[in-house]
Amino acid sequence: MSDAPEISRTSIVKLARGVRLHKDSARGRMVLLAPERAMAVDDIALAIVEAFDGEHTLSQIAAGFAEKFDAPVTQIANDITAFVHELSIRRMLEIVE
Length: 97
Hints:
This protein is an alpha+beta fold. Helix content is 39%, strand content 29%. It contains three helices and six strands; from the N terminus they run ββββαβααβ. It has helices at residues 43-51, 58-69, 73-89; strands at residues 12-15, 20-24, 29-34, 37-41, 53-57, 93-95. A hairpin with a 2-residue loop joins strand 3 and strand 4 (37-41). Helix 2 (58-69) packs across helix 3. The protein is globular and about 35 Å long. The chain starts with 11 loop residues before the first strand and ends with a strand. This is Pyrroloquinoline quinone biosynthesis protein D. InterPro entries: PQQD (IPR008792), PqqD_bac (IPR022479), PqqD_sf (IPR041881). It holds the Pfam family PqqD. Pathway: Cofactor biosynthesis; pyrroloquinoline quinone biosynthesis.
């Protein structure tokens, strides 16, 4: 059994309390900082994390990226859902709804 909460494409998420994006000047990359843990993020992960505003569903975020990048919405939605699942296991996200 997983520690992650149930996530669907209608889920609305935001960064958990105490989690923030931070520019790691020494390494020249962005990281997600949380109490006693950190996770490096690439440009794609950064764009996804920045879209987690606590107001839009994962489907809405995926649709926006599909339009912006002219990519299949199903593939983007699957990728975002998998990423959210991973972040929720690490307790870096809060599921608003």
